[in-house]
Write a structure and sequence with these properties.
Blueprint (H helix, E strand, L loop, with lengths): L1 E6 L5 E8 L2 E7 L5 E3 L4 E2 L2 E3 L7 E5 L3 H6 L10 E5 L4 E2 L5 E3 L7 E2 L2 E7 L15 E8 L2 E2 H7 L13 E9 L9 E6 L2 E7 L7 H9 L9 E3 L21 E6 L3 E9 L3
Parallel strand pairs: 7-18, 9-15, 10-20
Antiparallel strand pairs: 1-2, 1-6, 1-15, 2-3, 3-4, 3-5, 7-8, 11-14, 12-13, 12-18, 13-15, 16-17, 16-19, 19-20
Length: 266
């Protein structure tokens, strides 16, 4: 089942069960509790980010192909964890804004996002799936100059406003096999990343369990599970995002998350 968070033509915001590209059955109740769907569909005027997360955790270097393209001699022996500011979250069709303070080396990263549905702390890998509500497409947008040369750490580089597009819907956990779905990034019509989550070094249940042993994971928490090979900074010449580009993240069973790229206005 695909669940969207949307605004209708009257300006009301809520969740609904997607029945086609332009209509949804409104949800009545609590997304992370008891709910049902109305009988009559409404028109979707605008799709929003599927959740307003309390935290966004990212995982670096979690695809074998991505580690290899950076020339690492060995794979990580534990997940590399970072945070993205929740104010970086944006939705389908909303612009990715190239910030005035770091516009030149903004990169795309196609990722499968995990959405936690129940609060969890110190859960086992075996039980981790019970705490997953669903999955979404994500773009872990990153300013590489900040990440690698200026700041030499990741927080600002990955947390500028609009640097975490999510959507276009939540695929509920029972509707896809997150261990083997295709993850693809297309920039202005050119396929840049095309891989499968079967290449993950640390699979989804392991990540949920590992993070829950470090932090309490609240309902709505988003976990970005890493990106495969093909990001812009590893290419020759590098392929960074420019004003006028369009980025599409496509994940099998979820759909396409598309965002235009614009320069920050004065």
């Amino acid at each position: 089942m695909l669940i969207v968070r949307f605004m209708d033509h009257a300006g009301h915001v809520g969740w609904g069960k997607l029945i086609d590209g332009g209509r949804a059955l409104p949800m009545q109740g609590d997304l992370f509790g008891e709910y049902e769907f109305a009988d009559r569909p409404v028109q979707v005027a605008k799709r929003l980010a599927p959740v307003d997360p309390p935290n966004v955790f990212g995982i670096g270097l979690n695809y074998r192909s991505h580690a290899e393209e950076q020339g690492l001699k060995s794979l990580p022996d534990h997940p590399l964890v970072f945070l993205k500011a929740t104010t970086s979250v944006t939705g389908h069709s909303a612009p990715i804004v190239l910030p005035r303070s770091a516009p030149s080396e903004v990169d795309y990263e196609a990722e499968l996002a995990v959405i936690i549905g129940r609060a969890c702390r110190r859960v086992s890998e075996r039980d981790a799936s019970e705490f997953i509500f669903g999955f979404a497409c994500a773009n872990d947008v990153s300013a590489r100059d900040c990440q690698k040369r200026i700041d030499k750490q990741w927080m600002r580089a990955k947390s500028f406003d609009t640097f975490c597009p999510l959507g276009p819907a939540i695929a509920t956990a029972d509707s896809i096999d997150a261990s083997r779905v295709t993850v693809r990034a297309t920039v202005s019509g050119e396929v840049m990343q095309d891989a499968s989550t079967s290449d993950l070094i640390f699979p989804v249940p392991y990540l949920v369990s590992y993070l829950s042993h470090q932090f309490t994971l609240l309902p709505g928490t988003v976990i970005l599970t890493g990106t495969p090979a093909g990001v812009g900074f590893t290419r020759t010449p590098p392929r960074f995002l420019r004003d006028g580009d369009s980025v599409t993240i496509e994940i099998e069973g979820i759909g396409q998350l598309t965002n235009p790229v614009v320069a920050e206005s004065d």
